[in-house]
């Protein structure tokens, strides 16, 4: 089965998993509009692949009140977009018992980037995707699922979550909480779009070597986990198979995570019909 979409808008495409997946999509003859804060990296991406295959837009997702304008501009410039891939994120440590170790402003800013911006982008792009005559999707990516470390989940509104949504990492509470919220949001979004042409896909990667962990020190942070290019290949193959929940991608065991995800989804599917019409 081939990837069922023709033009992917990929937010968070200047580094890490996002950049690796953007490169891999173009190899599969899929057009990509890359979005990120760093214009130099976006220009390099377009220069590498050529303007027939790659476009770019500079946008900072932390500016949440401008997201509706960004979505309007993106869809006006690229009306053939049929997949929105949300893969951006930020991460830092917090010692919750020490008020001097990061204040509430920092905590809220991380929650805004890792969760609130996903909600705002979803709301901004949903009417456009619903208007498409064919199938469309969101892919959400939840970072990171690393066993004993982080968890990631990708959703087909295209967004990335994380296995930390299921088992939090104590040293990164804001990141873990945002991913748990995003995971719950994905369940609700998928159910509300169940009778539409828009799919919602969730990716849960293992620990992947990216700039996300640079706060640990670049040498240490980028030496952990599987290479982003290797994960991108795994993710694309899973998406081509039509999976709407993709866990893992490394040699680390994920059976316990898969069992938990399967049980949660079964419970949700049983309870959701009873709760849909509750006022």
UniProtKB/TrEMBL annotation:
Keywords: NADP, Oxidoreductase. Signal peptide: none annotated. InterPro entries: NAD(P)-bd_dom_sf, Sc_DH/Rdtase_CS, SDR_fam. The keyword NADP applies. Pfam families: adh_short (PF00106). Gene3D superfamilies: NAD(P)-binding Rossmann-like Domain (3.40.50.720). GO terms for molecular function: oxidoreductase activity. PANTHER family: 5-KETO-D-GLUCONATE 5-REDUCTASE, OXIDOREDUCTASE, SHORT-CHAIN DEHYDROGENASE_REDUCTASE FAMILY (AFU_ORTHOLOGUE AFUA_1G01330). Belongs to the short-chain dehydrogenases/reductases (SDR) family. This is Glucose/ribitol dehydrogenase. It comes from Penicillium bovifimosum.
């Amino acid at each position: 089965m081939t990837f069922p979409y023709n033009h992917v808008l990929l937010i968070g495409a200047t580094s890490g998993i996002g950049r690796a997946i953007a490169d891999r999509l173009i190899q599969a003859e899929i057009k990509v509009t890359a979005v990120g804060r760093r214009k130099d990296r976006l220009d390099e991406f377009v220069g590498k692949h050529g303007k027939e295959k790659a476009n770019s837009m500079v946008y900072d997702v932390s500016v949440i009140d401008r997201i509706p304008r960004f979505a309007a501009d993106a869809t006006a410039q690229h009306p053939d977009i049929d997949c929105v891939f949300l893969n951006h994120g930020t991460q830092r440590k917090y010692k919750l018992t020490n008020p001097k170790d990061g204040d509430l402003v920092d905590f809220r800013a991380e929650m805004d980037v890792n969760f609130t911006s996903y909600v705002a982008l979803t709301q901004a792009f949903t009417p456009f995707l619903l208007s498409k005559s064919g199938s469309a999707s969101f892919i959400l990516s939840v970072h990171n699922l690393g066993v004993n470390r982080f968890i990631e989940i990708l959703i087909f509104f295209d967004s990335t979550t994380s296995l930390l949504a299921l088992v939090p990492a104590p040293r990164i509470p804001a990141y873990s909480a945002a991913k748990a919220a995003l995971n719950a949001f994905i369940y609700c979004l998928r159910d509300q779009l169940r009778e539409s042409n828009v799919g919602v896909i969730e990716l849960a990667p293992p620990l992947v070597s990216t700039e996300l962990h640079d706060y640990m020190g670049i040498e240490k942070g980028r030496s952990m986990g599987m290479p982003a290019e290797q994960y991108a290949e795994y993710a694309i193959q899973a998406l081509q198979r039509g999976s709407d929940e993709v866990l893992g991608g490394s040699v680390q065991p994920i059976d316990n995570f898969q069992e938990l995800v399967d049980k949660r989804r079964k419970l949700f599917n049983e309870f959701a019909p009873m709760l849909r019409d509750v006022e």
